[in-house]
């Protein structure tokens, strides 16, 4: 099976600030997802292995990677971009090698079987805030959104109607207000990962810098 790169996944926004690499670690593990940070080290040839579940891959830094396959396919080289998102189904036994420098991948492994039902609501962010929220791709297991909010920008009241994994591509310093009027300050560092549950809220970027994140919404 060939690696799948959805065309929409290559439409990246403005250049991201550099995110420092960090060691491999499991960041989240529940009944819906397992989220891990994989540190891909320069010139290290990985052992042949395979993945049994569909995954969403978010690349925190740019990097060049060569794959060898055990089923006779020709080796392939990929040039990943910082902030790139890739849908990756199981692809058989493979061995990766980084060709230029270390980089991190956030791997969202999906445990749910998914549904054909679309994620939507009257307050869906794609409907009420298309200036900040953009669709990366959607299939039976996930809907993946990219959110960009300029310095001091405000996202109007919108709803996240399902559980989600958020991967922060920049630092976050937000003031949020939910549908009950509760106000909170939310902060994260670039490279952080957070688990979120359904919520209706507004968001204001308190920073002098633009904000960017990828939200992986789980269908179940």
What does this entry look like structurally?
It is a single chain. This protein is mostly beta strands and 220 residues long. Helices cover 2% and strands 48% of the residues. The chain contains one helix and 17 strands. It has one helix at residues 125-128; strands at 25-29, 33-40, 55-59, 63-69, 76-80, 85-88, 94-98, 103-110, 133-138, 142-149, 154-160, 164-168, 172-178, 183-188, 193-196, 199-205, 211-218. The strands form four sheets. It has a five-stranded antiparallel beta sheet, with no helix packed on it. The protein has a five-stranded antiparallel beta sheet with strand order 9-10-17-12-15, with no helix packed on it. Strands 11-16-13-14 form a four-stranded antiparallel beta sheet, with no helix packed on it. A hairpin with a 3-residue loop joins β1 (25-29) and β2. Mean pLDDT is 92; it is low at 1-15.
Brief overview:
With 220 residues, this protein is mainly beta. The chain is built from one helix and 17 strands. The protein has one helix spanning 125-128; strands spanning 25-29, 33-40, 55-59, 63-69, 76-80, 85-88, 94-98, 103-110, 133-138, 142-149, 154-160, 164-168, 172-178, 183-188, 193-196, 199-205, 211-218.
């Amino acid at each position: 099976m060939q690696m799948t790169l959805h065309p929409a996944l290559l439409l990246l926004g403005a250049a991201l600030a550099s995110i420092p690499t960090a060691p491999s670690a499991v960041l989240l593990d529940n009944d819906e997802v397992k989220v891990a940070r994989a540190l891909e080290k320069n010139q290290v040839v990985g052992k042949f292995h395979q993945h049994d579940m569909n995954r969403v891959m978010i690349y925190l830094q740019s990097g060049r990677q060569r794959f060898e396959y055990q089923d006779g396919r020709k080796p392939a080289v990929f040039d990943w971009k910082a902030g790139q998102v890739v849908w990756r189904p199981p692809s058989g036994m493979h061995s990766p090698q980084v060709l230029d420098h270390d980089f991190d991948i956030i791997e969202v492994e999906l445990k749910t079987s998914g549904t054909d039902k679309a994620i939507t609501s009257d307050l869906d962010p794609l409907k009420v805030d298309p200036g900040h929220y953009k669709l990366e791709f959607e299939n039976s297991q996930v809907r993946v959104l990219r959110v960009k909010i300029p310095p001091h920008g405000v996202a109007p009241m919108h709803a996240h109607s399902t559980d989600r994994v958020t991967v922060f591509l920049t630092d976050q310093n937000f003031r949020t207000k939910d549908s009950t009027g509760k106000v909170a300050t939310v902060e994260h560092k670039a490279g952080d990962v957070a688990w979120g549950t359904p919520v209706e809220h507004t968001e204001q970027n308190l920073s002098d810098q633009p904000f960017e994140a990828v939200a992986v919404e789980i269908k179940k």
